[in-house]
Amino acid sequence: MPTAPVATADTAPRRPRILPPLRAAVDAGYRGPRIALIHGLMAREYVQGQLLHYLRGAGHADTTQWGHLAPVHTIADHLQQAAQAGRGIAIVGYSQGGFHAVKIARELQRRHVALPLLVTIAAGGKGRWMPAQWGFDPRPVPVNVGHCLNYFAAGDGLGTDRHTARNHAHAQHPATRIENIALEPSVSHTGIVRCYPAARVHPQVKTRLLERLLAELEALSRAG
What is the pLDDT, as a whole number, of residue 17? Predict the structure, then answer.
């Protein structure tokens, strides 16, 4: 009777490599919000050169970039530490990172930690069928979230669902503010988070996403 092949170092399934986060370096007395920026599949360097650079350059020094496979509890620990110190916290997730952002928000809810701001960007479409997100629905927003900005663009097949209603986040608590923001179809999957060069930034991305994000983070800074 034939025996099953024995897995070797060459044939055994390999776990995806999880790269370390791009951690922020801030002074002990820093009082601005702590931001967890979550990139999607194969977008680490792109998001680093775009959103991470943009947020830190705008004065949000305590922004750490994480991957979409980083342990949920580790990111939740990182945010909870700041929340317990009386600082504002926010999660910004792009593509599959948007799925992960909701998972982290759920973990914070389990710990009874309020999340003032959750931003999901292009978290849908084909990203739903990747192994890390199989069967996970990012649309129900946990009850601990104060405000959710959810961005999508009809022309982005990678991060946007074909049926408009399926892109809409919805609150699980009446106190949660939800804004589902549909950008023009001309906004692409990479263009939706493009910050540089300025000449290539889509006008709607500039005004409705980037400038709005900074305004919300500034409000969070004042509240903290």
Answer: 67
